[in-house]
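Attaching the record inline, Q. Sequence:
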Amino acid sequence: MKPSTVRHLLSPYGTLLRIFLTPEPTPSHTKRVRAGGNKKRSFIDGWVEFASKKRAKICAETLNGNILGGKKGGWYHDDIWNIKYLRGFKWDDLMEQVQEEAREREGRLRAEIQQEARERRAFMENVESAKMERGMETKKRTKKRAEGVEEGKAGGERIFWQKRVKERDKEAKGIDQQDEVKRVLSKIF
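Structure, as predicted:
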């Protein structure tokens, strides 16, 4: 029910100063729409301020527990009023509660934004450090290429040179293995 409808239904009982209706929470609204319900914005409860206390008390006593009525096919025909006169309740008290909820919501939102900013900053620092490391690695590679060091070796690895095998040295010098075998065997026999 819209505020204008509430004003229209309650205006015969006295002049209304202010109306506040609490909107339906978004999750329940989306659930209702997905289930095939109407897309109208609903309200959970509301507060109405009359110009005189006397008129407000009469309205609360008269309408509490009664059917809204109206046309038989009307949207709110079968709804029941649940009205209570709140003694000593000021409009500022209501607005204070609403403002407090809004402040809490803003605080949570601000905290989420700060957390996201921290995560984004950390991510960007990691990206920058990775770029620096890649740059340093490419510089090392280019420097080693210029010096003539093999590319497969990392910068901190040691290189151990092996001694050449004697047989390979002899083959390189041109000494035939057959001749070497004959020489050794001739000394034995």
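The beta strands are 16-23, 43-50. Residues 114 and 120 are 10 Å apart (CA to CA).

More tomorrow.
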